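Please, structure for the following, as tokens.
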Amino acid sequence: MKKPLLGLTLTELQDIVLQLGMPKFTGKQIAQWIYEKHVRAIDDMTNISKKHRSLLEQDYMIGCSEPEESMRSVDGTVKYLFKTLNGAFVETVYIPDGERATLCVSCQVGCKMNCMFCQTGKQGFSGHLTVTDILNQIYSVENWDKLTNIVYMGQGEPFDNYDNVIKSLDIMIADYGWGWSPRRITVSTVGLRKNLKCFLDDSDCHLAISLHSPFHEQRLSLMPAEKQFEIADIIELLKKYDWSHQRRVTFEYILFGGKNDSLSHCKELVSLLSGLECRVNLIKWHKIPGVDLNEVDEDNMIHFRDYLNNHGITCTIRASRGQDIFAACGLLSTKKQMENYED
């Protein structure tokens, strides 16, 4: 099988062309054709000689592929189904909002974290996405040139696939790559401590932490990762970093009716987050089969937000998008599609 060029750094591209006997500057030309001009075939790189293009094509390909399917919501949200290089499937969500257009990308096929409330976790874990697979979701999505923000909030735990995720981020912000500002990119995690610390030291991208309960036992019942990565320890780590300037930390908090939406939860959140420059993003839960949790009352959600804001914690409610096409938070799963394709 030919090897993909999409997902390679400038240094890696330069090494390839030198090994093939081409001038080193050809590596930069390839990077420009891929990351600036979004070509879909090596033969489209017209300022590279035909001889060199033919040589490249013997062992390499761009590595991009169009979505297998797409579904459009009544609110304009679009969910795409992508096939990975090894034949698995992942979902990607495009969310237009006025002048803002956000793409929610996946980093794994399924997920190991098995959070109680998440459909992706019910799918189980099938494998990591390569850098090519991650970037192809951006490269090949419709209206890629209109994107203003990228969030790593799709299928999978980004810090469980850390090396590929961080490399994809590096290419996105590099001068030879897409040249994005780190402030346009947010990576979400349950809080895998070792790679969380690496991310804090290595990246200027925004961070989102899945919190969902300030109480250890209750968070553990919702999120098995709490056993190894306690939220209290994560927050103590975060307090060692400066969040007052460009980089931002947000806590994602899915509200479940009668479960984690009480006044005591509000008070404990205020106590837990005290001294940390952050914001809380409240998310409405959408029912999935076989999970004994309830959707929150709208008024209770507003009271929860207002309490936090009135006690010094910036809090917002995330608008729910794409629920009718199962593209909203926690609903992504390709288990059914994988079974259909296998049949």
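The chain has a mean pLDDT of 92. DSSP finds twelve helices and 14 strands in the chain.
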